[in-house]
Amino acid sequence: MSKKIESVNYGLEKIFEGAQDFLPLLGTDYVEFYVGNAKQAAHFYKIAFGFQSFAYSGLETGAKDAVSYVLTQDKIKLILTTPLNSKSPINDHIVKHGDGVKVIALWVEDARKAYKETTSRGAKSYMEPTVEKDEFGEVVRSGIYTYGETVHLFVERKNYNGTFLPGFQKWESAYNPPTAGLKYIDHMVGNVGWNQMDVWVKWYEEVMGFENFLSFDDKQIHTEYSALMSKVMSNGNGRIKFPINEPAKGKKRSQIEEYLDFYEGAGVQHIAVATDDILKTVSQLRANGVEFLSTPPDDYYKSVPGRLLQFSHELNEDIEKLKALGIMIDADEEGYLLQIFTKPVEDRPTLFFEIIQRMGAKGFGAGNFKALFESIEREQQKRGTL
Ligand code: FE2
């Protein structure tokens, strides 16, 4: 008997009952990118991905060294930051890594406690607890380094009523393209170097109190040419999920090695954003000019009904429509998921986005890894980096 599955807000479910959570996380607060030209990048995220103008900090608000644009779409907040002179240390990050994610900010009740708990467990400090105030109240932020030069900031905003953070003003724009139905960050994946995955798995366990709830080895994730390994880390309430990838030996250079070469180190590989209508979202993103990886071959779509049947799930969507948009399908005992991956969103083949709709499934599309990586390899072939 087949089951109809409703779209679920997986981000708010409990995955496991951990021991007492020493680092309770309320959710992702924001993701900050360091980019070469924030003004132009902000326009791209508005027109291409349907983000909305939200807040701004720059010369006009009294900032001297950097300018930041904050964009929002439902629960997602992105900050795009560019230095205003050659002295800013942000330049070093951009010179080395190109445009990329610097900060994964986590929303907490108590930023001082989050800092104390993590640094006392071995985290390297990035920012001691710092209070920022304006007429709308105060925000406390603290921060620690994770893999590469990426950092986690802990943001405590319970005593703040302003638009975003002290120092930011509301960003009113005359140009407001429609949203694309992106709702929240489902997961963010980090790429780390050879033999570093377990080091960071242990770090997330010990320093952040996360648990490893899914693992994939190179026997599960490989193509004819390349392989990688991945372990998924989750916090206690399941709202934050960070898969960590490392390259594995194959005949040719894997996409993880390509990333590490071009990012010049470990960093965020992709940000998965959830929608509850992937057909609509992806149609719109394609019309807006977002570039996706090539559609899997016909054989892939022929095998989908069998895979769903194996778990007695019924596909709510028309498979021909999914195929026409290049959307992939994966299933597990609990349901299925729909997903698609963009090409890198900057010239270095580094960061990309995933669009995901969960229909009960809690996995990450393991059944699609092969088709996905073959598609990436076709791009690597064109770049001469396979
Ligand atoms: Fe993903």
Which descriptors apply to this entry?
single chain; 386 residues; alpha+beta; 2,3-Dihydroxybiphenyl 1,2-Dioxygenase, domain 1; binds fe (ii) ion
Characterize the structure shown.
The structure is a single chain. The chain has 386 residues and is an alpha+beta fold. It has helices spanning 38-49, 90-97, 111-119, 197-208, 255-263, 278-287, 298-310, 319-325, 369-383, and strands spanning 27-34, 52-57, 66-73, 76-83, 100-108, 125-134, 137-145, 151-156, 169-170, 184-191, 211-216, 227-234, 241-248, 267-274, 328-332, 335-341, 352-359. The strands form 2 sheets. It has a 9-stranded mixed sheet. The protein is globular and about 60 Å long. The chain binds fe (ii) ion (FE2). Fe (ii) ion is lined by residues 187, 189, 270, 272, 354, 364. Fe (ii) ion binds at residues 187, 189, 270, 272, 354, 364.
